[in-house]
Amino acid sequence: MTAPALSALSALLGDRFSTARPVCAAHAQSETHIRTGLPDAVVFPETSAEVAAILRICAAHRLPVIGWGAGTSLEGHALPLHGGVSVDFVRMNRVLSVSPEDMLVRVQPGITREDLNRELRATGLFFPVDPGANASLGGMAATRASGTTAVRYGTMRDAVLGLEVALADGRLIRTGTAAPKSSAGYDLTALFVGSEGTLGLITELTLRLHGQPEAVSAAVCAFASMGAAVDCVIETIQSGLPMARIEFLDPAAVAACNAHAQQNLPLAPHLLVEFHGSPAGVAEQAARFGEIAESHDCTGFRWAEKPEERSALWRMRHAAYPACLASRPGATAIVTDVCVPISKLAEAVEETRADIAESGIPGPILGHVGDGNFHAILLIDSESRAEAATAKALASRMAERALRLGGTVSGEHGIGMGKLAYMQAEHGDAWAVMGTLKHALDPDNILNPGKLVPPHDAG
Amino acid sequence: MTAPALSALSALLGDRFSTARPVCAAHAQSETHIRTGLPDAVVFPETSAEVAAILRICAAHRLPVIGWGAGTSLEGHALPLHGGVSVDFVRMNRVLSVSPEDMLVRVQPGITREDLNRELRATGLFFPVDPGANASLGGMAATRASGTTAVRYGTMRDAVLGLEVALADGRLIRTGTAAPKSSAGYDLTALFVGSEGTLGLITELTLRLHGQPEAVSAAVCAFASMGAAVDCVIETIQSGLPMARIEFLDPAAVAACNAHAQQNLPLAPHLLVEFHGSPAGVAEQAARFGEIAESHDCTGFRWAEKPEERSALWRMRHAAYPACLASRPGATAIVTDVCVPISKLAEAVEETRADIAESGIPGPILGHVGDGNFHAILLIDSESRAEAATAKALASRMAERALRLGGTVSGEHGIGMGKLAYMQAEHGDAWAVMGTLKHALDPDNILNPGKLVPPHDAG
């Protein structure tokens, strides 16, 4: 079925269709250790109508279709597990319209987060979801991404107001409206957000924007224990203080950041916080946070009120991943991602720390602690099968621990190929329901096959 | 198929099964002018397992199943269009657990909003979604309800973290976890929220709570025009001021409230606002709102800082519906509900006002203006077919106007039977997708048949 489909795609797209090996290989690369074969072809559509036409061709020939954004997935979402066509959205990267009064923007899926915010700068508005990587908005929606600012501004679930989606049969549908809320029928927007390209390809997004904060303040402080840091976070949240970010670094992550960013933080659990608001509001929030932190015996409390101090602080946090990588030269990282109820966070992190310590593998921990979400960066010798197996077992126990504590195996990185093994345990019969929905919308299983839902014959 | 199903239900539930005419008639009543026949029976389950067993019996005999909460729907959601069994959740009205550290509560679907907040009072937490009526939480989730506080705290889409749902085949599934976010698979929680009992019956909810605000302030002010009031709202939102409520009353609504609540507000467009926060934060927000309102030439600005003044103000707003009803003695109300982008709100309201004025029917307008959501309370002589037809035409033009302006035909009241005629116009092919999903999860169409999705044979 492949050859006639590829001919039709070539005829449709001309030089925006490629079967060149380097192009295909670039679309089988991943930020992770996960590897697959190559796609049969890569296409570069420029319009929604072209995406729909691509899907009609692939549907007619039952050829797999995999969306490709910026390639920053950490779970192998966009890898062609069964060959097929990789649909690269790099040429669909425009801002279609900005509506400042409604604080909305319509974009094509290939635009990256940083490019979007660059284009928005003059409007006084910004798009807040920040997963760290300069991901594409389509990819961020498809994986329900979040990051450091979710505690204040929410995740992609909250940020996406509406979508245009190309379905498996080539129909283009619109979900949601430009009104801020609706109770008119099933929430298809929410169904497609996080569906990882298995129900349709996102061809357009309407996103909620926020006003650039008038004032920002940030601080860093150390705690005697993870438990004390988490208790501080819980009390801060309960007091209603609207933190814009509240990030956790464990002592191993602090050590890596110290070395990488020429800092000199004590080797203790740390919180990094940021407040957004009016000058007076931020000052009040900062003062109240300081009181709460002190009541939990924080030490080394330091405000970074000047923009350059703040930048240095967040540069350090955003560079934590390369800093951790650099802490074990030549190592490969397996980045885990679990999320638990905040009341269980100290327990989850402490158990994970002990488990990592026992394993002998370095594994700094950092997290979006306001969401109960944390990552261990497991640093393994990429040549060592034994270390890979150890890391896999650690990651597996983290996932099981998260479920035991009432949480989820994926806070923000999605399922892709890396987390499929835990779906049954997390969702029970609800996983089969996901399979039923997938089968209803994509009966021939051409959309990102092998991902997210139970194997097709088991559905 | 009905008699053997009813025997089985009777055997299962004993005296919690009824075919008594008054009981059945009570479950065919509605807050609206919409009327249907009676259900064949009413059941009163006490556990999720019983709900599942009811569904297995009804599935085996293909008997329709309609969930029943508090009966406050404004669109006839819970009416038995094709007979069947009304599942009344009144006996499933317990708080199952409160987790203050995680700011979560697990409840059964039959508990009402006011009962829940009464039970939470000692915890310092509250459940913010407030549709006015003392609805059940299961019903509020099923219709994706919102209300006066959505501008700050969101709608049921945001408030529901997880569900237990009994499916058409009697399987019980859990959606979501107790973690604050997740990227693990399809967002089934969001799919069931707003599905109006057509995909499953909600048997348990995990809800997000908020801290009771330390300080509250409220104000009322008048504007020369609807446009000036909306511009004030837009500027307030863009400035990032976290309003807890911002409500609009048109001059006709003000007149009704004046008469009903012994107020003496000028007959002009009014905004009622409320801020929640720390004492200093609320004071700052209030001052900034005052400046913004003055720059839009507001008049009669009055703060209600004392609890009793504030209560009087919101009592007046919450009684606006009976006040409007009382303004035309003996009248029946048709309550409309549309939502548009905020930039189009003044246009939508002004056109609607002119249309109503021309019709000769009284129709005060009030709205949750921070969400672009407003209602006209069309007051008709219930004996007059001509007035009913006029009101229906007005409501129809409101829906068309909302769609033309990029909005939705239902901001918060759902689809039920009242809005089904607009679904194709709002959603296009996405409505057929809703039908596909419904058919996949409920192939025999036993769950609230005749509601929300396209007619089954057209699916």
UniProtKB/TrEMBL annotation, chains A, B:
Listed Pfam families: FAD-oxidase_C, FAD_binding_4
Keyword terms, alphabetized: FAD, Flavoprotein, Oxidoreductase, Transit peptide
Cofactor(s) needed: FAD
UniProt-listed GO biological process terms: lactate catabolic process
PROSITE patterns documented for this protein: FAD_PCMH
EC nos: 1.1.2.4
FAD-binding PCMH-type domain span: 35-212
Top-level lineage group: Bacteria
Molecular function per GO: D-lactate dehydrogenase (cytochrome) activity; D-lactate dehydrogenase (NAD+) activity; FAD binding
Similarity comment: family membership: Belongs to the FAD-binding oxidoreductase/transferase type 4 family.
Name of the protein in its database record: D-lactate dehydrogenase (cytochrome)
Native organism: Gemmobacter fulvus
